[in-house]
Amino acid sequence: MPAPSRLTWPKSLTLTIPALLVTLAAAVLALPAPASAHASGVLAVTHKSPFNCGKTFYANNWTGGHNPEGSIDWQDYGGDDVNGETVRATAAGTAYFYDAGSTSYGKWVEVRHSDGTRTRYAHLASMVKAAGSSLSVSQGTAIGTVGSTGNSSAPHLHYEQRYSDGGMDTSPTVEGVTVSLGQKKAISSSNACGGSNPYTPEGVCGSGYSVIDSAGLTGGRTYLLYNSGNGYNCVVTLKTSNLGSPSAVSAFLEPQGETRTTDSGSFDYYAGPVRRDAAGQCVRWGGSVGSSSYTSGFEHCG
Predict the structure, then answer these.
(1) In the chain, fewer beta carbons within 10 Å around the N or the C end?
(2) What is the set of domains in the chain, with CATH numbers?
């Protein structure tokens, strides 16, 4: 019986195959790793605490029914009650204001950041703008106060960090502290510690207003603005000292021949806005910070 034939390879191919296998292996190793589900939305901005400088509260990333999972509930710490605290943007962006009534988030704000990511602040007692409005904010700009609106059983701040595709970051980082699922950590705020007022006259008075005059005060400045679209003037007094702490501030506006309108009280950052229809009228305007005050004559009569 003849011996079975054996398949043989040309010598040139025998030498080439190992080299091809090496080349193929190198190519596979060089392939990029698969992108994560949120690769396009990596959080590039850094976030500070949503509270006043020096305030410490618990950040509770609790699980088992928390919706959405990965959100933070900011809660009382020690003897400091979170209810009524000023809520601040944790990073710069554009804030959008919403009101879900007695359901879901209640009064809430979404800040969309420069890298496409966003943060949410929910169950607010109050917001600095009406629902449906928007506002350009800096890191530290006040956007509301802590409450218990919507589907909430007790005062707290519901806080989320979301990727640009809308997905949740379930281990958000604030003040350099990462709070992973199931963790509860006390975090102190360094937000709004820089000594500058995070508000602007235009931001307080609203869209369409431009500054036409101002007067310096000890500890602040009072501004007169005008909206050419509707003929209204607006006055606001911004503090430059004792920022974030309530102190006496006022702003007033008086169209000639009419009564004066004044906003005064103990405020963290500003008094006003005081708006009046004054098209074609002279106005007297001014304000105060503590004992320092300014009152104009009747002017700006256009």
Answers:
(1) N
(2) 56-188 (2.70.70.10), 201-295 (no CATH)
